[in-house]
Write a structure and sequence with these properties.
mainly beta, 8 strands, 8% helix
């Protein structure tokens, strides 16, 4: 993943400065977790540097403010997600379809209330998460950006988000994941912003 980011930036450097631009935007995000039911919804912001018309470098932060999962005792009071990635795609008139790859983290806070856990080894995943945990994250997918006016845009992203869970998973018995493992879920983001 890091090699992909470095290669994309190096390829873009020879382009002229006139092709460079900066974008700032806000978005609403909803994401699924592979090991827990329900969707997680949040808000965030994104800065995008475009060293060339074809390539964008995104720095994104999202905050998921409510307890998760909802409807049952929550193991997390809130979450913060940070991603750094690259988009690649041509501009076709006022539309830019793109492929996207990003890496970063998802920080899950402690449970908002005391969280009861059964005394077994290894402990269930939600018990591990209730103490607060930072998980590596990968995000791969694509999207489309529409120019609304000369300096404003709307953007939609759809991707698969991989999280590295601390393990184990008891979702499917017998549990065959006793160590750390990667799980994936769908992530959607809708937003807009300004070009500079």
């Amino acid at each position: 993943m890091c090699r992909f980011l470095v290669i994309a930036v190096i390829v873009a450097l020879p382009y002229s400065a006139s092709a460079q631009s900066l974008e700032a935007g806000v978005h609403i995000t909803t994401a699924q977790w592979s090991e827990f039911d329900g969707a997680d919804s949040g808000i965030g912001g994104r800065l995008t540097f475009k060293p060339a018309a074809l390539i964008g470098v995104d720095a994104e932060l999202a905050w998921y403010p409510s307890g998760f999962p909802s409807g049952i005792p929550a193991f997390s009071g809130s979450r913060v997600e940070g991603l750094l990635g690259v988009t690649v795609g041509p501009r076709i008139d006022r539309v830019r379809p793109f492929a996207r790859a990003a890496a970063g983290f998802l920080r899950s806070s402690e449970a908002p209330e005391p969280f009861a856990c059964i005394a077994i080894f290894p402990p269930p995943l939600n018990c591990l998460m209730a103490a607060g945990h930072t998980m590596p994250a990968l995000d791969i997918g694509g999207g489309v950006q529409f120019d609304v006016a000369s300096r404003s845009f709307a953007r939609v992203d759809i991707s698969g988000r991989w999280l590295k869970y601390p393990g184990p998973s008891l979702r499917q018995l017998p549990a065959d994941r006793a160590e750390e493992f990667w799980g994936t879920g769908l992530r959607l983001s809708f937003g807009g912003g300004l070009k500079f």
